[in-house]
Design brief:
With 396 residues, this protein is of the alpha/beta class. Helix content is 37%, strand content 23%. Bound molecules: glyoxylic acid and manganese (II) ion (2 copies). One manganese (II) ion binds at residues 71, 82-83, 116, 182, 344.
Length: 396
């Protein structure tokens, strides 16, 4: 399975993955999922939000089942494991359960969530958010990519009917419990010296768009004192974000910036920058963003520019179901339990009231959202065995 996926959307120059929603690469990945499901005789469905499901057993007759899975899309120049490891491990765990000859008392489903990273349209987990009703379909349809193409038009391009995009309570009702396996995106399991761990919670996090507006002018003839340069306001705001995050033991990143007119010898008229901020507690995150907006506004006044801040997405603290997480840790012989500051579809499902847990597989580089993200084959196999043990415990 890994060999089939390895070339899809991989940049020959960076070795990173560019697998964005509703693109030809996304189409190939969806086709791969269909083939793996069909090859195993699973029942393949696509929910109204565009997420793919493959069921072993029939949740409509046999009652809600145990679902696992993850996503196949990536950030720009992402690693191979963030997402795909959870989907491939789900199929591999199911194969192991078939080999073990288990008899299910509940169906098992594999999900492939659409557009988890939000790399193209800006809102992370749009597939699971539309599914659960956390993202209004009208808002989703109106999102645009960097070329101005709307989500609705991209859906139509991909052969999907935009007007059918909707929450899908029937698809959600098939899921009693959801367990997502994911590569760890930090160093927790390296420090615990464990190949597999269980998630305790997801930090609150969100994305804010900062639009700085100034006045375009000549880079040579305009005296420094006569400028209204939004790049300057942005630069000071980026430094402030770093300082605010450090002093609160939180995280703040401007990882995406566009500017106009983007010429070497022109003072910019417009800088748009996206803030990704996260903190252990919701109050800390609120205080960080509020203070940053205050400092950006104050700086804009000094620079003769303006700044407008728009929330693009916001996710509260996710505390995974404690009895379930303890049960998983026990089934796995006392696996470590650890929090994460990364967002996941599992968090969206948990917020929607589904009993949810996550397993993490050790990442020896501790690096993620980069081609350097990694997992050793032995640890991946340990992850598959752990997932199979957990599914067997929950579904038999
Ligand atoms: C998902 O990978 C995130 O950005 O948290
Ligand atoms: Mn990710
Ligand atoms: Mn992921």
């Amino acid at each position: 399975m890994w060999t089939d996926l390895v070339d899809i959307g991989r940049s020959p120059t960076t070795g990173g993955y560019r697998r964005f929603a509703l693109t030809p690469e996304d189409g190939q990945l969806r086709e791969w999922f269909e083939q793996e499901a069909t090859r195993r005789g699973l029942d393949l469905t696509v929910d109204r939000a565009g997420n793919q499901w493959a069921w072993w057993g029939n949740p409509d007759f046999d009652g809600p089942g145990i679902a696992t899975g993850s996503h196949l899309d990536s950030v720009p120049d992402g690693g191979a494991f963030d997402g795909p490891l959870g989907v491939v491990s789900a199929f591999a765990a199911l194969d192991l359960l078939v080999l073990q000859g288990i008899t299910l008392s509940r169906p098992i489903g594999i999900a492939c969530f659409s557009d988890e990273e939000g790399s193209r349209f800006g809102v992370a987990c749009s597939g699971s958010r539309v599914l659960t009703g956390a993202l209004d379909p009208d808002r989703a349809r109106a999102l645009t990519d960097q070329d101005g193409m709307s989500y609705a038009d991209a859906m139509a391009w991909a052969g999907r009917a935009p007007h059918l995009l909707a929450p899908d309570p029937e698809a959600l009702a098939r899921v009693d419990t959801f367990v997502e396996l994911h590569v760890e995106q930090g160093r927790g399991l390296i420090e615990c010296k464990a190949p597999v761990g269980v998630a305790s919670e997801i930090w609150p996090h969100g994305r804010w768009r900062f639009s700085f507006t100034g006045r375009a002018d000549h880079a040579g003839t305009t005296r420094m004192s006569d400028r209204a340069d939004p790049m300057l306001t942005f630069a000071v705001t980026a430094l402030a974000a770093n300082k605010q995050a450090r002093s609160r033991e939180a995280r703040a990143t401007f990882g995406r910036v566009t500017l106009a007119p983007n010429g070497t010898n022109a003072i910019p008229s417009q800088v748009t920058a996206w803030l990704d901020a996260r903190a252990e507690a919701p109050d800390t995150l609120d205080a960080l963003v509020t203070e940053l907006c205050r400092q950006a506004t104050e700086r804009a006044e000094r620079d003769g520019t303006t700044v407008e801040v728009t929330v693009e997405s916001s996710t509260g603290l996710v505390s995974f179901d404690v009895p379930l997480r303890d049960r998983l840790a026990a089934v796995l012989g006392g696996a470590p339990v650890l929090p994460t500051a990364a967002g996941h579809d599992a968090g969206v499902l948990s917020t929607a009231g589904i009993r949810t847990a996550m397993l993490f597989v050790r990442n020896p580089t501790g690096i993620s959202h980069s081609p350097e993200e990694h997992a050793e084959l032995g640890d991946c196999a340990a992850g598959v065995r752990a997932l199979a043990d957990v599914l067997r415990d929950l579904a038999t």
